[in-house]
Amino acid sequence: MNLIIRSGECVLLCGPSGCGKTTVTRLANGLIPHFFHGNLSGQVNVNGMDTRETEIAALSDAVGTVFQNPRTQFFNTDTDSEIVFGLENRGIPREALRFRLDELTEELHLSELRGRNIFELSGGEKQKIAFSSVYASAPDVLVFDEPSSNLDMKAIGELADLIQQAKISGKTILIAEHRIWYLMDIVDRVVYMQDGRIASDMEASAFKALPEADIRRMGLRVRDLSVSESGGVKTIAADGLLSAQKISVRLGGRNVLNDISFQASRGEIIAIAGVNGAGKSTLARMLCGLQKNGSGTVLWTGKPMSRRLRRKKAYMVMQDVGHQLFTDSVAAECALGIKAPNKDEIDRTLEKVDLLAYKERHPLSLSGGQMQRLAVVVSDICGKELLVFDEPTSGLDLKSMEEVGILTRSLATQGKVLLIITHDIEFMMRICTRILFIRDGEIVKDLSGGQKEKIVRLLRGEE
Amino acid sequence: MRLDPRTKLLILAVTSVSVFMNKSIAVECVLAGIPLVLLSVSGNLKRMLKYAAFFLALLLIQLFIVPRLPVTFGGIVYMFAVYIRKLLPCFMLGSFLIATTSVSKFLAAITKLRLSKGLTIALAVTLRYFPTMREEWASIRDAMALRGISASAAGLISHPIQTMEHVYVPLLVSASRISDEITQAAITRGIEHTGERSCIEEIAFSFADLLVVIAYAAVVAGMVYAGMKGVF
To answer: B213 FRET partner, CA 20 to 30 A, in A3, A145, B118, B222?
Structure first.
């Protein structure tokens, strides 16, 4: 591929998963060939430096990178040291460090984040610190590799503001991203990749003018959240199979959940939405019987379930699915913990989700989507009836998101109760039948049908 | 009290060697006592109490319970109680090092030791990995609970190999991914710069470092003396 990015340009790299956009970011910041080895032919120049001939230390002065996972990009426990980390690497004297720290605090509005413990920050705040730390060293080029994957809407808004500010100050910006809606008013140019090639390269205005159908065909996520069509509107007989009553959890002297009550029926796909820290995960852990120090009752067909019983009835498909696959083959994974595994039933269940051919493979060698489906198969074999998904679509392209949609719908048809913790508006609108919006540990809105559209404003904090 | 990271590394090294050379229980109590003091003055009181209780329990098992057990079984219990207890001071100092040292300070201090860049980065990434490992471990334990696999001590004793496999496989995979990601973030932020590193916080040996070093010199001297005289 050939690509020239002019100084001061802001370029969005998009395309389906595996199209090579992350590889392009790694070529730009020098991780290829300095960290990832392989066969590289051709030439990459950044700021006039040939990346192959230049030390990565010198490249890092010119290119700063913000990565996807906020949890694995910081080195210090306190925010102040973290912001100046890159400057310390360059041996900038202490007085100058302090001066630059104050300067940045002003420029990027960081006063609330100064002197804090990073482990206690939300994902969005961590990402803001990661950006500040990269920005502190004043690189000419900024590279972002799916920076919004783990963020809620409000945090994405703040990230967008930071990128905008970097653009105004004249940085050259390269962003690889699946979620493109928040970048539409920022980028100058959109490069669409497919199978390791640039399939189209256009001005942002031309990209914005493309009809919606083209965007779908390209496998891209929506450019504007308000056009997410509302699906999943289906009348479901309310049977109140699952009922949560007065659930409260206190952790570290704070009410994380406050008197939450709701009911759920077979066949529902319920999104649990809210900003990071609103209590979504704690609610999920409570329903699955994983959370200690909680009060309230969880009933199943009208009977209260103990914590132990909930752990038997419920299953959580984690964001990091790798954490819940324990054995060395797909077949063994399905039989794990079952006294007398029924081989035929396992085969049938694997067949249903196209995994039968991978029976002998190591679970962790499967693709993300396959691992997710394997976790679901496992839950089916264990006879779980309440399934909680934690961010099943974060960092997924359109096709993979739709596959998760198909999977959840088929589970709902089988009569399971599904709860889905998610920030993904497109997924909520198209797949979920109902949205519980949580704020400060309380359910403040229970939206279904046409009301679901309100979620965009709620998540932006405008209502 | 703020210790220099180099002092922390030094006492960790001294302790790691001493616990195996030492034969005296009195000296062992001092070796365990100093990290307990360090943990409590650095504000990790809860952790300190846990370690202290564990150490004491293992000591009491050796002194009062083992003599009353049948010889073979007693031998097994003795081995566990004594060897785990001997390692405790190292664990305590390790957790003290991780809890109280920021990576940037650690890096600035050890670059002054003029170790190779590769080793320095590896040490820093390791130090940074531990808190994340705790988060990963919590989520693996949740996943195990939902599959009805026990990660408790009872599970470990009844099916040791199986339980370890279920913990280690996901933990190792996540460890290699996370350390990879941390390393990428580090090198794109210029950790490979060869000049001397600066640090926003002051790094210098203080009176506290001197005190701790003297204390450990005394422990080593005490250990040699106890070894010669055969003190309890």
So the answer is: B118
Q: How far is A439 from chain B (nearest CA, A)?
A: 24
Cα A276 versus chain centre, distance: 12
Q: Spell out the residues 6+ positions from residue A214 whose beta carbon is closer than 8 angstroms to its own.
A: none
Q: Shortest CA distance to B97 belongs to which of B4, B27, B32? A: B4
Is 70 exceeded by the pLDDT of residue A234?
A: no
Q: Which pLDDT band holds residue A131 (cuts at 50, 70, 90)?
A: very high
Residue A403 in this model has a pLDDT that exceeds 80 = yes
Measure the CA–CA gap between B155 and B168, rounded to whole angstroms: 14
Which of residues 107 through 126 in chain B touch A, CB cutoff 8 A?
A: 107-108, 124
- Which among A91, A92, A322 has the least Cβ separation from residue B174? A322
pLDDT band at A103 (very low <50, low <70, confident <90, very high): very high
Do the Cβ atoms of B200 and A378 come within 8 Å? no
pLDDT at residue A155 greater than cutoff 80: yes
Per-10-residue mean pLDDT, chain B, length 232? 88 92 90 94 91 94 89 88 92 90 83 82 84 86 86 71 80 87 92 86 88 94 87 70
Q: In what helix (H) or strand (E) does residue A243 lie, and over which residues does it extend?
A: strand A242-251
Cβ of B103 within 8 Å of Cβ of A320? The answer is: no
CA dihedral sign of residues B149, B151, B157, B161: positive
> Which CA distances in Å does B18 have to B22, B51, B131?
6, 19, 27
- Confidence band, pLDDT 50/70/90 cuts, at residue A233: low
**Contacts with B165 (C-beta within 8 Å, 6 or more apart), sequence order:** A326, A327
Q: Give mean pLDDT, residues A344-356.
A: 89
**Which of A36, A55, A77, A372 is the best mutation test for B, with the most CBs of B within 10 A?**
A77
Q: What is the ipTM of this complex?
A: 0.86
**SS3 assignment, position A354:** coil
Residue A277, classed as helix, strand or coil, is coil
Which tens digits make up the pLDDT trace of A378-401? 998 888 999 999 999 988 899 999
In whole angstroms, give the CA distance from residue A49 to residue A59.
8
Minimal Cα–Cα distance from B138 to chain A, Å? 10
3-state helix, strand, coil in chain B (%, to 5): 80, 0, 20
What is the phi/psi pair of residue A276, to 5°? -60, 135
A325 touches chain B (CB under 8 A): yes
Please list, in sequence order, all residues whose beta carbon lies within 8 angstroms of the beta carbon of residue A345, skipping any fewer than 6 positions away. A381
Determine the straight-line distance between the first and last CA of chain B, rounded to whole angstroms: 32
Q: Is the pLDDT of residue A235 over 70?
A: no
At A16-58, the pLDDT tens digits run: 988 999 999 999 999 999 999 889 999 999 999 999 999 999 9
Return the pLDDT at A230: 67
Beta carbons of B232 and B24 less than 8 angstroms apart = yes
- pLDDT in the model for residue B102: 79
Sort out which chain B residues have CB atoms less than 8 A from A252's CB and list them.
Answer: none
Could you tell me the end-to-end alpha-carbon distance of chain A, in angstroms, rounded to an integer? 46
Tell me the one-letter amino acid at B223: M
d(CA A91, CA A97): 10
Cα A202-A205-A211 angle, rounded to 5 deg: 85
Residue B75, φ and ψ in degrees, nearest 5: -60, -40
SS3 of A16-54: the string is CCCCCHHHHHHHHHCHHHHCCCCCCCCCCEECCEECCCC
HSE value, Cβ hemisphere, 13 Å, CA-based, for A334: 26
Could you tell me if B173 lies within 8 Å of chain A, comparing CB atoms?
yes
Distance (Å, rounded) from C-alpha A182 to C-alpha A385?
37
